[in-house]
Amino acid sequence: MSNVDEHEIDKFSQIAHKWWDKDSEFKPLHEINPLRLGYIDDHSGGLAGKTVLDVGCGGGILAESMAVKGATVTGIDLAKKSLKVAQLHSLESGVAVNYRCVPVEELAAEAPASFDVVTCMEMLEHVPDPQSVVDACARLVKPDGWVFFSTLNRNAKSYLMAIVGAEYLLGLLPRGTHEYARFLKPSELTRMTRHAGLELADISGMEYHPLTRRYFLSGNSDVNYLIATRRPR
C-alpha cells in the first residue's frame, strides 16, 4: 500500500457520487470513453471473449463499456467510495464487472499472467511511483497480451491546456485535479514500459476541440495521449 497518495484518494472520494453524472466533473471521462474503448478494442483484436483488468477503474465507466463489448472484466481501485458507486451502477445496469479494492502490485503477486488485456487510464499521474504500476501491469498480462496506458504529457502546452484551460478557464475539471509535476512525457512512459518488458505498438494523441466540444484521436501527443504495448511471448 506504499504506492498510494491519500490526498488523491480523498479527492476522488469526495466526488465519488458523481461518477455516472454525465454533466458533473466526470463529464470529460464520459466524453473520451468511446475513444478509449475503440482504441483498446481495435489494438487488442477485439475485446469479446477476453479477460480484462482495468487498473484504477474509479466508478467503472471504462470497465462497464468493455464488459458490454463481451469481455470478462475485473476493475480495481483503492478509493472505496468510487468502488461502491461502481458496484451499485453494475447492479442497476445489469453489466457484470468484478470490482476489488486491492493495490495493483498486490494483485500482480497474487495472479500473475492472468489477463489478456490490462488497461490503466488516467491513473499514472495520480500515484507516487508510476514505474511500480507499469511493472505490475506487465506482470498481470499474459504473454502476447496487451497493456494500455493513458496519461498527460509534461510541457508548457499541456500545462496551459490541461490545468489552466481545463481546470480554471473552461471548468471542464475541478481545480486541483492534476499536479503538473506528475505528468509524464511519452519518452518517460515508453522507457518505463521497456523496463517492464513490454513492447511499444502505438502512441496516439487525444485532442479536444473547444468549439465543437469533441474529442478525437490524432498523431499529436502534446497533451493527452494513449499508448498500446504488448508483452512478448
From TrEMBL:
Pfam families membership: Methyltransf_23 (PF13489)
Keyword Cytoplasm assigned: no
Reaction(s) catalysed (UniProt annotation): a 3-(all-trans-polyprenyl)benzene-1,2-diol + S-adenosyl-L-methionine = a 2-methoxy-6-(all-trans-polyprenyl)phenol + S-adenosyl-L-homocysteine + H(+); a 3-demethylubiquinol + S-adenosyl-L-methionine = a ubiquinol + S-adenosyl-L-homocysteine + H(+)
Keyword Methyltransferase: yes
InterPro entries recorded: SAM-dependent_MTases_sf (IPR029063), UbiG_MeTrfase (IPR010233)
EC number, UniProt record: 2.1.1.222, 2.1.1.64
Residues annotated for S-adenosyl-L-methionine binding in this entry: 36, 56, 77, 121
Keywords assigned by UniProt, alphabetized: Methyltransferase, S-adenosyl-L-methionine, Transferase, Ubiquinone biosynthesis
Metabolic or biological pathway: Cofactor biosynthesis; ubiquinone biosynthesis
GO molecular function: 2-polyprenyl-6-hydroxyphenol methylase activity; 3-demethylubiquinol 3-O-methyltransferase activity; polyprenyldihydroxybenzoate methyltransferase activity
One GO biological process term: methylation
Function field: O-methyltransferase that catalyzes the 2 O-methylation steps in the ubiquinone biosynthetic pathway.
Similarity comment: Belongs to the methyltransferase superfamily. UbiG/COQ3 family.
Name assigned to this protein: Ubiquinone biosynthesis O-methyltransferase
Lineage: Bacteria, Pseudomonadati, Pseudomonadota, Betaproteobacteria, Neisseriales
